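Trying the structure run again after the queue cleared.
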Amino acid sequence: MKSLVIGTMLLGFAALGYSQNSDDCSKNEIALSEVEVSPMDQAYFDEVAEGVVSTKVYALERKASRYNVKKHPYFDDNDNKVYHVRFNKKKAKILATYDNDGKIVYAHETYEDLTLPPVVRNSVFKEHPDWKLNQTSYVVFYNGVDASKTYRVKLSKEKMKKNLKFDAYGNRIK
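Done. Tokens:
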């Protein structure tokens, strides 16, 4: 039994020693294709993505901020135009206006049927307990400097209906 254990240990050490052979390392190289990193409109992304809870919103805003308008077929570097680009996903869209430098100067975002952030949801049901949440939407206006974020909520209770607006902090907008 003792010789079996010692033999197994020697066999294990021999296998470990052989696996450390570095002759074949150069044969396992993998060539990677070039990776292109697109510039990001950080000012836009920081302003609109602040406090965003939904991954759907975050992903579409990130896509718009990383879009390179200079690769657009109609882009003319000598012309001082603005370019309108629409980004669509299911129940989500962004209409972004880019300047000649590739920066977003205006954006209008609309998202339907999102889960409300806890702050907004708590405000809605604190003001209207026993009401049913029928529909939600999230609208963002960006003007190149700051963003206006509004949650629109449709509520119903028996035969009554209400349409309400809240800011990103759960404050009701009249």
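The chain has four helices and seven strands. Worth checking whether this holds up in the mutant runs.
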